[in-house]
Amino acid sequence: MNYYLMHKDHKVALLDINEKGEVVKVKAVLCPERLPVGIPSDCGPKDFTKWFKKRCDIVNSAKYKKMYNQLQVTQGAELFLHSYAVSMSDCYWIRPEPNLSKRNWSRVNFYDTPMSNDVSLLLVSSPADNIGDEAGRPIRYNTPNFTIQGNTDKFWFYDKHKHENFLFKIGRQRQTSVYSEVVGSVINNRLGLSHIEYNFVNLCVKDERIPCSVCESMFTDDSKELVTMQEYIDAGKTAKDILDMIYASHLEIPFYKMLVSDYILMNTDRSFSNFGFIRDSESLDIIDFAPLYDYTDSFYFDWPQRKVGSYDKAKPFFDTHEKQIRMVKDFSWYDDSSLIGVESAVDYILRLSAIPQVVQEEMKTALRNRIGRLNSYLCAWGSGKTLDQKLWEAKIEAEKEMEEQGNGKEE
Fold first, then answer.
1. What is the mean pLDDT of residues 381-388?
2. Cis ω on the peptide bond leading into residue 96 (within 30° of 0)?
3. What angle do CA 238, 283, 3 make, to 5 degrees?
4. How far apart are CA 41 and CA 217, in angstroms?
5. Using an 8 Å Cβ cutoff, are 47 and 41 in contact?
6. 204 in helix, strand or coil?
7. Is 299 exposed, middle or buried (0-12, 13-18, 19+ CB in 10 A)?
8. Which residue in 250, 265, 288, 267 sits closest to 190, CA to CA?
9. CB-CB contact of 240 with 246 (8 Å)
10. Over the stretch 394-406, which tens digit does the pLDDT of each residue have?
11. How far is Cα 147 from Cα 87, in angstroms, rounded to an integer?
């Protein structure tokens, strides 16, 4: 069947897509400048199939396969075709040709049009539950749940009373990660960083209370969209190219802020998919660094599998935060006094959890030590917080030597 790949109401390409969701033919590229990042102007069917697969990969997950019968489909491709592959991150979608239902951007996007909660309710309900306002009515597929990225269980929900969209991340299997997101918001608020605000809620489903983190909508809207760094990597860019783009766009300060936030929170999953640029959805110009988001794999999220404070794992430029923090060349924005007393706010969040009290104390101590270690790095900076590289390197070597001596004594 023929579909237009649309960007808002711009026809980008005419594609022949089969029932498996594969692009079998590119009939025409109508607006090459609006092709998604990562799809070349001399694109073929495989380029589009790869892009769609990545965009809607969740529909083929084990979680959704178990629900195909309730969702009234036989394969995942039907879900993203029924939903027009609309996302909350950008302005791309697909439109059937002929357009019998007279669909346009204003009718399919979720900034102007309420999304259905059918699929979201199904994700947190039991298989026997009836979904919908009327028994037996067809499932409504107008939801961005089929284009959600990442491994965490999550879903979008439209609050008809507030007329707002909310993203819930479920903590059934990894409860600690829910609190990690909220602690991340506390730290980022104290530092004055641009970020997604996460809060904690208990989602009540029958007799079960499911811990969740929740955020209001996203930082995108009809006029601006997210382009993740992973999209540039998929287009053949390297990590160095990404850094060059950040500096060329004069967005190094928000980049430094991200590295500092990740250092404090021990974020282990700042992959290239988890940060990016905001671009104008009409001019396609880069206008900002995306607000910080996704802290599920931070602040000792994987306790009790790992001991609190026992490791230092970072992404994407270096494998440890001790190495990655050295990329920061300007601390003039950083106010170490902003984090004074932050432990009390973190304590309040942790007390909402089922984490044992002794582990909560370990987490707060580890956070205090982490902030202290970061502040100690500032000793290698002048009054203007400009790096003295020689002093920095000497300090690192001295600390390493002391650590080695200490380990020798313990033996």
1. 57
2. no
3. 85
4. 32
5. no
6. strand
7. buried
8. 265
9. no
10. 655 666 666 565 5
11. 6
Q: What CA–CA distance (Å, rounded) separates 371 from 410?
A: 26
C-alpha 161/C-alpha 166 separation (Å) is 12
Residue found under tokens 């199939």: 49
- Using a cut of 0.85, tell me whether the model's pTM lies above it: yes
Q: Residue 96: what residue type?
A: P
For residues 11 and 8, give the distance between their C-alpha atoms in angstroms, rounded to a whole number. Answer: 8
Q: How far apart are CA 289 and CA 304, in angstroms?
A: 34
Q: What's the CA gap between 8 and 105, in Å, rounded? A: 5
Q: Tell the residue number behind the tokens 């033919």, with chain if given.
A: 25
**DSSP-derived pairing of the beta strands 198-205 and 208-216:** antiparallel
Single-letter amino acid code for the residue at 52: F
Task: Report the distance separating Cα 332 and Cα 72, nearest Å.
Answer: 56
> Given this model, what pLDDT does residue 188 score?
97
Q: What is the full DSSP assignment across 67-105?
A: TTTTTT-SSHHHHHHHTTT--SSSSEEEEESS-TT---H
State how far the Cα of 176 lies from the Cα of 187, in Å rounded to an integer.
17
Say which DSSP state 306 is in: S
